Predict the 3D structure of the following.
Amino acid sequence: MFAGQRPQNLGVKQGKLTPCPGTPNCVCSQSTAAGSKIDPLPAIAIPKLRKIIESMERTRIIKATDDYLYAEFTSKLMGFVDDVEFYSDRTAKVTHVRSASRLGKSDLGANRQRIEAIRAQIKG
């Protein structure tokens, strides 16, 4: 219903995920802005991360490589789509993450909560 268009600027460019747009509906571990900054995830192999993502409701894997995973998460009620990316930074030994709503400005903390839920499953 409120899916919006898939962004064309996603992916890893020179070791960086796309910066957050400055709206409060995006978090990124490579951000320096207080509102969008989130800690990176512990280092995790993309296939293992993929299994975690696929176990979550209303998800769709769009792209997966050895060091990158891009998934769409759709909200239950209105069908809003969030774009979520993971980048395995082997040098820093972390998995960087970016989670952003396609539409609107506020997500009521949904993107941050999702990443923290994934973090909890990794530590699980």
